[in-house]
Design goal:
four-stranded mixed β-sheet, alpha/beta, globular, binds pyridoxal-5'-phosphate
Length: 455
């Protein structure tokens, strides 16, 4: 194991992390608290501290971190303003079981920043807020079904975990992903390939009277950080309007990461409802669902039930307010920085791979991107993405870890405002070393279905 600390690189052991994982396995299934963590090789890591762009494990190793709390950390770990806001709020009480002004201030801020948001409700996790969006859409349209896309992840709840990780087959059959999922979970789900306007058009024409919503990640981050092809989101917007179907953007990853107003502001297409989480509070758990007033006001009218013990708690609100304030400084400077750092890193990975003769594809807007080892030159849908073997990447990720760089096992990389050019240069050196283990043998067969999305 390499230690990256104050410029020094030295060999240390990883035994405490491994010992903790072995101990954890007798009391935590898989030794972890979320399934994606089971995929880390050689074993799930245990950390004691995180600061700026660095993670510190229980063996004393430091890593340049590109997992970034599964994309939730945007300013950097332990950002001083967010920590101060959290400490200030904590000193005034964790949960009043009543309203407080911060909820209103944050809602006003969200209304001013996010194009689709006229009203908003808070939750704690992305999964919950997506469930709320689906319920609002069903209540508003009086229709039962929603259309989703293969390769998009919308949380682990029963109806949301249908066909997230399976490519669409010819009959577009929705598939359950977990034992114990209620067998009727797929009954009201229609699945389509993303980035294919004709497929969406056909599905809507065949089912529009039953369809309440089209639910998508506006940038398909989970299935490979794939951008929408030109005109796709506009066409989806137009089709939804024509059929009286609500367009829901799941911005749990893109929100506050690609633009202060989400991917909808970056890409210029406004949905009816949108969901935010992750980066909203720099790693503290808070999420929200927001959108058009008449849809959201179904909650005020008592038609739609929405609740949560921790919704709008002072800690989540204070951390979100501090995060949004930092991200709003200097007219979008944070996003220029995130994009520049992300793109420098993307280019560095491409150059390191070219120098070693390893075929690589690095795609994404910059603040989040994806790395595949493949001869394929561009990937625009999940059906191609899922055919590329993740095995070389998995070895590469383990080799990066041994060289002081931590990434999510699947292929997605996140950066924060705390990453520096020096971090990127060191990372590229680690990439060069880690590439020694990568062996690519073409596009590969249809893969093991990976739980490549979600956290
Ligand atoms: N939506 C998207 C796009 C996500 O990536 C995730 C989680 O990774 C979720 C929803 C679920 O959010 P959470 O894990 O906070 O429940």
């Amino acid at each position: 194991m390499r230690k990256v600390n104050q410029g020094a690189i030295m060999q240390v052991s990883a035994s405490s992390s491994e010992r903790l994982w072995n101990r954890a396995r007798s009391v935590l299934p898989g030794g972890v608290s979320s399934n994606i963590k089971m995929e880390e090789r050689p074993h799930p890591m245990f950390f004691i501290h995180a600061e700026g762009s660095r993670l510190f494990d229980c063996d004393g190793n430091a890593y340049i971190d590109y997992s970034c709390g599964y994309g939730s950390v945007i300013l950097g770990h332990g950002h001083p303003s967010v920590v101060a806001a959290l400490q200030g709020a904590a000193a005034r009480g964790f949960n009043y079981g009543g309203q407080h002004e911060g909820e209103v201030i944050l809602a006003e801020k969200l209304v001013s920043l996010v194009p689709c948001i006229e009203m908003v409700r808070y939750n704690s996790t992305g999964s919950e807020a997506v469930a709320a969006a689906i319920r609002l859409a069903r209540a508003y349209t009086g229709r039962p079904k929603f259309i989703r896309f293969s390769g998009h992840y919308h949380g682990w709840l029963d109806e949301q975990l249908v066909s997230a990780h399976f490519p669409v087959d010819e009959k577009a059959t929705p598939r359950l992903e977990s034992a114990g999922q209620c067998s009727s979970s797929a009954d009201n789900v229609l699945v389509a390939p993303w980035n294919d306007a004709s497929a969406l058009e056909c599905l809507l024409e065949a089912h529009s009277r039953e369809v309440a919503a089209v639910l998508m990640e506006p940038i398909m981050c989970n299935g490979g950080v794939i951008m929408p092809v030109e005109g796709y989101l506009e066409r989806a917007r137009e089709l939804c309007t024509r059929h009286g179907v609500l367009l829901i953007f799941d911005e749990v990853i893109t929100g506050f990461r690609v633009h202060l107003g989400g991917a909808q502001a970056l890409l210029g297409v406004t949905p009816d409802l949108a969901v935010f989480g992750k980066a909203m509070a720099n790693g503290f758990p808070i999420s929200c669902v927001g959108g058009r007033r008449e849809i959201m006001n179904q909650i005020a009218a008592g038609r739609v039930f929405h609740a949560g013990t921790f919704n709008g708690n002072p800690l989540g609100v204070a951390t979100a307010l501090a995060t949004v304030e930092e991200l709003s400084r200097d007219n979008g400077a944070a996003y220029q920085l995130l994009t520049a750092i992300g793109r420098r890193l993307m280019q560095g990975i491409r150059e390191a791979a070219a120098a070693k003769g390893v075929p690589v594809l690095v795609q994404g807007p910059g603040p989040v991107f994806y790395t595949w080892f493949t001869q394929v030159e561009s990937i625009w849908n999940y059906e191609i993405s899922v055919r590329i073997s993740r095995a070389p990447y998995s070895q590469f990720a383990a080799a990066l870890l041994a060289n002081g760089v931590r990434v999510i096992p699947g292929g997605r990389w996140y950066v924060t405002c705390s990453h520096t050019e020096e971090d990127v240069d060191r990372t590229c050196e680690a990439v060069e070393r880690a590439l020694e283990v990568v062996r690519v043998t073409g596009i590969g067969p249809v893969l093991e279905v990976v739980s490549g999305g979600g956290s």
